[in-house]
Structures are given as structure tokens and as C-alpha cells.
Amino acid sequence: MAYKTEHIRNLALVGHAAAGKTLLAEALLYKAGAIRVMGDLTRGTTVCDSDPMERELGHSIDTAVCHFDVQGQRVNLIDTPGYLDLLGRSQAVLAAVETAVIVVDAQSGIDIATRRITEAAVKRGLDRIIVINKIDHGETDLLGLLGQLRVTFGPQCLPINLPAEGGKRVVDCFFTREGPSTDFSSVEKAHRDIVEQVVEVDAALLERYLGGDEAITVEQLHDPFEKALREGHLVPVCFTSALTGAGVPELLNLILRLLPSPLEANPPAFLKGEGAVATPVEVIPDQSLHAVAHVFKITIDPYQGRIGVLRVHQGTVKSGSQLFVGNMRKPFKIAHLYSVQGAALKEISAAVPGDLCAVTKVDEVHFDAVLHDSHDEDHHHLRPTDSWAPMQGVAITAARRGDEQKLADTLHKLMSEDPSLRLEHVPSLNETVLYGLGDLHLRVVLERMQRQYNVALKLHPPSVPYRETVMRSAEGHHLHKKQSGGAGQYGEVFLRVEPLRRGAGFEFVDAVKGGTIPAQFIPAVEKGVRQVLQAGAIAGYPMEDLRVVVHDGKTHPVDSKEIAFVTAGRKAFLGAVANAHAIVLEPIVNLHIAAPTSAIGSIAGDLRSMRARINGETVLPDNQAVIAVQVPLAELKDYGQRLKALTSGEGVYTMEFSHYEAATPKLQQDLTTAYRRRHTEENEQ
Ligand SMILES: Nc1nc2c(ncn2[C@@H]2O[C@H](COP(=O)(O)OP(=O)(O)O)[C@@H](O)[C@H]2O)c(=O)[nH]1
Ligand SMILES: [Mg+2]
Fold first, then answer.
1. Pocket probe mutation, ligand 1, options 13, 16, 23, 54, max atoms within 8 Å of Cβ
2. Is residue 495 a contact partner of residue 569, using CB atoms and an 8 Å limit?
3. Tell me, what's the pLDDT at 215?
């Protein structure tokens, strides 16, 4: 089907796990005629949950892209996983759509994952609608839920249709002024409320409306409706049952008639240039301009290899044409271009602005890359929105000898698929740590490594990333001299170590006067200092928040060479640290814990036993509360399990790094003693 940008609608279905997003996508595909029968979640035959692991776990673990064509329009849907742990993946696809469809379970209400992904959608400038799903379930208080939504997300959440006959069907309240009786409120009132909200964004229309003008048509309301959505002045709420199909035609009608095309939404926030010098730049959804596309999803498929899914933002992406990835000099050729329907790819010849499409087997294509066909668009990026820092770590080694390279390759593949994973190698501990957003996130990833890539893993809790620093200034000096027989070595260094504030890192200052250490040997001194910095001086952890000032030394016309100054620098620095009251620092993290209010007392008590500082408590509707605390990371081993036990599985938490603090004297002593013991053992071997 040939369609233009104005005929495209891009939606992401977001919201908590088991709200019915995947089934709702299936119901829409079915209603629009894209599939002949609705798939079955438990048998893994839905378009969006086709992965064997999704079938086993019974919920989505990755985002899925699908589409349907109806009434001359192309609707692209992206289904997302709803678990808090997997939200990084859901957040990533928001860059590809105009509208976030927030799906809420009529029975269980609004949870923390729904709040978080909604905040992310607001930050991206997306239009939002709320779908209350599972209205077929008899025991629900839909009016109460609507009230909670308005408390949580604002009074601009207004019903655009209403359930009737106990949730058996849904009645429109926007396109019609009056209608049959509904389960609560009335078509007349809901219509008035939503129209009033819409006309508020258009001064002239508002005046006519207030003047009692009865002749304002739905067509005249279209543009102000778009404006109200863009500005977040209106968040329409609609009702569905993905199971019975109630409300699905009304939702489809809303998508086709009122949700924005790429031309009607807030434009994507592109920047040109890197870091602080980046400036906003316009990318225009015009198919005749240079092509600009953004990679919002990478999948590694066992058969197809690497699949990069793109959103075209400007120009036309054509099969057979060449594209640059970011600032790369050489382009790659699009051998095949595809449309995406769940796990199935179908070859297409071109994609216009607003469209979603895929390329395969291009190794350079990575997550968040900007693809373009002219060097004019080098240095273009999509503005990053802050994402949740992965803090739940597990240290990984290959269980079978000889699998190390395979492990490294597999980790690399998984990293490129999932923007919310982080991999860290700690040289001082020779430890590879994979960080994710939570237990479930890591479990899903590790399971895939073992199954799909057949890598057997050995897992253990990661060591806590302690640091070392100094508390006062001290001088250090070393003369390295070897002048008996053969080529000699000579270098002498005087330096001073000074403490810096927390978070300042490391500074190296060359204050040598009169060339007592010749300029060409200063880097050697710094190299020696950095060796200690990396390996640690008292407990084996990297040192930071200090300044080293090299101020004097001595050289020898023949025997001074680089190696001599590296050694002198290292030993002079060790000497200085020995007198500078070196201490161990421990990482402190911010935790946000959400749980039923009834469990908050026991959670707080447990936290106090972990040296936690409680910073605040927010009570949410629905008997939920969020506690904000700072805790030493070392105390949080197995916190996931502890919290589950305290809340019968209902508590969730997120964690992010805050700062480093001096470890307690007892911990200092344990760590330095352990280090000394390790050292002695090594020397004895
Ligand atoms: N009664 C009822 N059950 C539903 C409805 N929509 C989804 N479900 C069920 O809720 C569960 C979760 O659905 P799913 O689509 O996987 O939710 P997701 O995690 O949001 O993608 C499944 O057992 C569905 O059959 C609905 O409208 N009514
Ligand atoms: Mg799902």
C-alpha cells in the first residue's frame, strides 16, 4: 500500500505487566483485518509475544513492532514489556512514536512502572492517551479508577468514551453529544467536559463556545484537539476489553481520526554536535529531503543475524541506497529493507518519514545510531533523556575453560540489543560484572545467554566497588638508582599528595622549576603515580579525589630514562600516601522502594538495620507508598529477596549511584587486613 507521512500513526503500548497490552495489540490487528484469528498468549501465537521464553514466562520480555493498514492509513504499534526491571527497553522505543498509549488494568490500577514510563513519555514530548483495559471483569470500580488516574496524572485525564451495560460495550462521547445510558456519568457530561478542555487551547474558539455557539463541529475541533494533546492539556481516557473486543472499534476510530500523524505531533528533539556544544537542529518530515533515520531497537536473531529497526524522520529510505552510520566516513548499502510484523520481516522498497522499518546484517548499526545519506547530517543525535541507571550487578565467568572468548562475544551481542544493560570490567579484581535494572532483567538476559548462545556461566555476587583516598597532604620522595655494571638507571622524584573534595577525581600537577626533572620525563612520573592509583595503596581499590604535585627531582645525563622515573614516581607516591592518612571509601546509593503502605513500617525497620538514611516517604493512591533512602551498597546484597519477603512479593525498588563516603572503621580494618593477607600469599607463591 502506498501511504504518505500524514497517513501514518505510530503508537507505543506501555504500562504495567499483565495490563493486557499484548492482547490489545492483537485485538487491534484483528479488528483492522491484519490477522485472521486472534493468537493465544499461552501458546505463544500472538504477533507480539512470539519468543519461546515469553511463552514460558507468560509475559513480554522485549519490545515488538507490528502494523496494520486500514482506511488508507498505516498504524505502527510497538508493544512493550511492563515490568519495572524491563522498562529500559520500553523507554527506548518512545523515541520512535508520536503517542504513548498507557494501558491500565481495570482491576489492579496504577503501579510504579506505569508512573515511570509515563514520566518518560512526558519527557519525550509525546502525546498520551490512557486505555483502561479488562472492563469485562465484573468486579471493578471504573469510576474510582478514573478518579485515581486524575489524582496521579492530572485533571486533564478525561473520558472520551464510557463503558455501558456493565462493560459489555463502550459508548463514544466525543463525536456524539448525547447517547444511551452508561455505567457512570453520561455521554452529555463527558462530551461537555472534553470539548471544554479542547477549546481552552484556542482563544477564538473558546470565545465562541462561551458565547453559547452550538454549531462548533467535530471537524473544527480537530486542530485544537491535536494542540491539546501535544501540550498535554488533554489526556483522553478510553475503555476496552482486549478479551471480548468491547471498546476496540472505538479505540481504532480514535487512533485513525484523532491521534497525531508525524506532522501533527511535537517534532523529535534532534541535536547537532557533541556534548555541551550540541545545538538543536530541525529534522523535517518531508520525503524529498536528505534521509535521516534513528535506530531505536536492535535484535540479534538466530537466523537473520543483527536486525536494526529504524524510525525514518526525514527523507526517504530506499532499498539499494547507501546510508552513513553517525559520523562514519564510509556508507553501507541497504541490500534489503523490511517492514516488521512481530518476528516476521517483509521486504519493502522504501520508507517515508514517520515510517518504521528494518535493515539486517549491518554490523555498524547500533542502538541509538542516526542513519543518513549525506555528510550534511553528520553529528546528528536524538536528544538523550535520562534513563534509569542499571545497578543490579552479577559477576560472570565462563563455566567451561576455553569459553572465555565466546562469553565475551555473547555479552557484546546482548549489550548491543539492550540499552539498559551495562558491562564493567574491574581490572583490580579481574571481575566482569553485568549490571541490569533488577533481578528479573538479569535473569532474562542470563537465561538467553545459556539457551540461545549455549554459554555455561558461573555467577557470583559482584564485589563492592570500594575506592581509596587520602585525608591530608603529605610529601613523598624516592631516588631510583641502579648504577652497578651495564646500563644504569637514575631518577629522583619529590612530590606531594593533597586531598580533594568527594567526586573531584584525580589531578596531576607539574610544578617542577628549573628542569630538575626534564619535561620529557614528567609523563613517566605520572605513569608511575597512575599505576598506584589503579591498583590501590592500602586495600587494593582504585584511588581518587586527590591531587599529586610533582615539584622537584634530579636527573643524570646518561642513566636517566623513562623506566627510572616511572619507578621513582610510583615509590614516591606510595611514600606520600603512607603519611597522608589513606582511607577506604564506600559507595552509597539512592533507593526508591515502592510497596503497599501496610509493609512500609517493616521495610523502614529493616533499612535502619542496614545503616540507611530515610529521606522521605510519599503516600500514593491505592494504598501504595514510596520510600526514598540512601544506603551503603555493601548492605544491599540480596535486597531483592529481602524486599520480596517483607512485602509478599509486592515491593519493588530502583537503585542509582549517589556518592562515596568514608567506610566505617571496622570495615576499613577488615578490607585492609584482607588486602595484606592476599598480598603476603601472592608473595609467598
Ligand atoms: N479478562 C480480561 N483479561 C485480559 C484482557 N486483556 C488481557 N487479559 C489477560 O491478561 C493477561 C495479560 O495479558 P497480556 O496481553 O500478556 O498483558 P501485557 O503484559 O500488558 O502484555 C493474559 O492472561 C490475558 O489473557 C481483558 O480485556 N480482559
Ligand atoms: Mg505483553
1. 23
2. yes
3. 76
